Predict the structure.
Amino acid sequence: MKKRLVCLLAVLLLTGILAACGSDSSNDAESSGDEVVIDFFHRWPNEPRKSFYDQKIEEFEEANPNVTINVDSVLNDSYKEKVRVLVSNDDLPDIFSSWSDTFAENLVSSGRIKALNDLIESDPEWSGKIIESQYEGFTFDDTTYGIPFTVDGKAFFYNKAIFEEVGVDVPETYDEFIEVLDELQAAGYETPLVEGLTNAWAISHYMGTIFHRVVDSETLAQDYNPETAAFTDEGYVRGLEIFQELTTYMGDVSTAIDHEAARNMFSAGEVPILYMQFAEILMVEDAGDVDFGFFNFPEVTDGNGSPDSLTGAPEGWMLSENAPEEAEEFLKFLTSEETAAEFTEVDGQLNAIEGGVTEENANPTSYEAYQIVLDSPETAPWFDNAVDITIADIFMRGGQDLATGQTTPEQIIEEVQSQIAK
Amino acid sequence: MKKKFPLTPILFLLPSVFFLGVFIYIPLVQNFYNSFFDFNVFSNSKEFVGLAQIKTLFQDDVIMISIMNNFKYAIISVIFQIFFALILASILEDKLFRKVAPALRVIYFIPVMISISVIALLFSFIYNPQMGLLNSFLELVGLEAWARPWLGDSTSAIYSVIAMSQWQSIGLITMLFIVAIQKIPNELYEAADMDGAGRIRKFFSVTLPQVKETMFVNLLITVTGSILVFNEPFILTNGGPGNSSMTLAVHMYQTGFSRDNMGYASTIATLIFLLSAIFALIQIKVSKTGKED
């Protein structure tokens, strides 16, 4: 009797476990009847964008009562990791944000991303508003996999008041830039330039731009392609030396803080110069009361690269292959002219939708930046998205080591080349 | 008396065997199998590369840095968490401290109950170079020469991470020792008293031999924990600056998820498993646990 009870218990326990394991998969049947659930994943758990998207979700749900949108969000570096995990199985959200270039290409290579050519062609009224040139980073083998939304550019933001006080002008060349930094230092600004070097991407932004200044574009194109990458050009060593020289102006503090802390220092007027994205204009204005302007990374006179290319690439939205039709509608809603205009007002980041950024809804500083983006003769992608991630990782970690004096530019290039050899 | 097949105990064991199998042993074997392939999370197929990943392992400089950091972690943890925790526990169990011991026990144990992410955030403020408590304190007592960006300096980063772990874990080990000390029969102490033994003599001749078994368990927890350590360096420094505070587990994670090399990450995982298994075996052999009593 007792034994039978034990048997029964054991069997019950086991079936319980097995049932629990199995039940997860049954949740996947999302569209039961008319009710549709859309999984939405973006990378802005911080304000103001989080509230903006929460509100957009609410508006869309009100207009489409049969749709429920589940939203999830994590920040930058974590987002990259999480999306990689999600794309490796079938749990990929229906609609999610993505960077362009290699990052997008990697996602696309999983075969789980929806091609959007039909969608774009079927609704020219909507797709015609999107600035054509921004599609490039999402298009692979003539198939477009993402809708660009935000556009961006990276420039040195400088504190106008400090520049005036010290009596320095916006530098035109890299040598002048170093002179400016020296003068600022002499005037008592111990760290005239800061950066949050704990953020690997911040280092890659510097390096990407510097390489575009010192290495000619043909060599770059060749090295950015994983098939032909060599990194043998002497310009790379020169580029890393430039980066190393700049870190000497950043002080001890930079290797221990993140970019946000650096931005707060700039907003508080403690630091005269910081390399930032146009996307951060509103954040700087909100956090402090400094009058700032910007200048592109100056020309390196002895460099072989482009003297005035602007670093910055669009970010946009992707759909998973199995996304329901309603997710397509939601995508159009997110990239419509109305949403874009409102987005500019609330968030301040510039976007790729015609009529999204106007003199009326953007603040003057942002509008100035928008013109720079539109007028830039050549754009350079974010370095960490442009090259193979193992290579980018060596450069980014190497950048930290350069700042703490643990390595030399030659050693980094050597390491890169031995990685390529593998 | 006929010998019956012992069905009941086996049935009782089944659920745990099932869990261990699904969550520990199958993944372990799968991981070992994966380490012979080259693949990333995006790819749908795996490419068999034989022992190439192991070759990479031997050429990887970061592995050596990581192992050294893990060893530093283990050695410092053993010193602090075994020796200091034992001393702390015997002080707390001393008659002198009877009144305040319960309160102190709670105070020492509180860090154990706080989530590691919260603690890491807290310590990143303490270590902050501009407004951090630590640097401000050093300035206050006239030691500003010692102030530095603790987590941003490649010589101090790993020690700063280790220090945080000690602060957090010493409470747990102390608690385990307290339980062991409380189980020591009082007669032993009374006999020692009669022989005229002082406090220190009693600690070495009664307490220490009696808590040997617990000490072994704690040693095992601490050393294997040090080899597996992930959360603390991952949240505080992410292995940086450069690779200076990299540990094996962080290196494995980054290889797999940031650098898209799952095959090699599996190889590192196998290395971590081998290392912790070897250490556990050595400790079991040396301490001959379970042979007494």
Q: What stands out?
A: Chain A has a mean pLDDT of 85. Residues 117 and 144 of chain A are 6 Å apart (CA to CA).
